Amino acid sequence: MDLRLEAIVLPVSDVDRAKAFYETAGFRTDVDLAGEGFRVVQLTPPGSGCSILIGHGMPQREPGSFGGLHLVVDDLIEARAALIARGVDVGEPFHFPESGTGPSPGFDPERRDYMTYAPFEDPDGNGWLLQDVPHERNLTAG
What we know:
Blueprint: E1 7-9, H1 15-24, E2 28-35, E3 38-44, E4 51-56, E5 69-73, H2 76-85, E6 94-95, E7 104-105, E8 116-121, E9 127-132, H3 136-141
Parallel strand pairs: 1-4, 5-9
Antiparallel strand pairs: 2-3, 3-4, 6-7, 6-8, 8-9
């Protein structure tokens, strides 16, 4: 049995502002439906099988209350530069050393998969992390 995560409801305070932000970041608008007392917009990151839903008139948490949403990328340097070029304020890369201490600035010294991140937030403060996976993805793509 397959269990596919296909959409996450992301709480935002201003649907149009959030939609513009995510479109600027390269997300594709799949659906923008409005009716009496509700609006639902579905956006999908490039290359992703999972979308986000934003809107109003549906049950959701407080705007800006989500954090740690991961966007896995093959090349963190390239992905970060592309988002910055689109006007997204992406923080500096950081990694978690093997010592188990907290985050350290810069890339993982060995550029190991799943160890380096770069943060950004949407206009409401929902937190995202670009997660660097340069090796595993490249091995399965060939």
